[in-house]
Amino acid sequence: MTSPEMEQYETSAAFLAELSALGGALQAMRRESRPDFRAMHELVRSCAVRARAHGMPAERLVRALKALVREVALDDASDAYRVLYTDRIIAWAIESYYDFSKS
Asked: Which of 8, 69, 85, 92 has the least CB density, counted as fewest CB within 10 Å?
């Protein structure tokens, strides 16, 4: 059973705004020949840290991020972009959610 706070956060304007910012950053990165992943990494880290602070389970965060990448990559001719970005974003989110960088 999920807590009301977690469900509220998952549909909150704050979380949806974070997803929107991530989506915009992903779209911008697709247009760059040499994208800078540091800004994207920071956006994902912030999103994951706040999700955890609000009690959102990691699997729901991962599901939301995968859906976001899939939506942004909808017009791509190949799956390469989607797979590359999904792998990176999910790895960053899990690392940040569980704070592996400080271990």
From this structure: 8
DSSP code at position 103: -
* Run of H or E including 64: helix 58-72
CA–CA separation, 40 and 29 (whole Å): 9
Share of the chain above pLDDT 90, in %: 56
**Residue 6, C-beta contacts closer than 8 angstroms, at least 6 positions apart:** 54, 55, 56, 57, 60
The token pair at 30 is 């697709």
CB 72 within 8 A of CB 26: yes
Mean pLDDT of all residues in 43-55: 95
Please give the radius of gyration of the chain, using alpha carbons only, rounded to the nearest integer: 14
pTM for this model (two decimals): 0.83
Structure tokens at 7: 């469900």
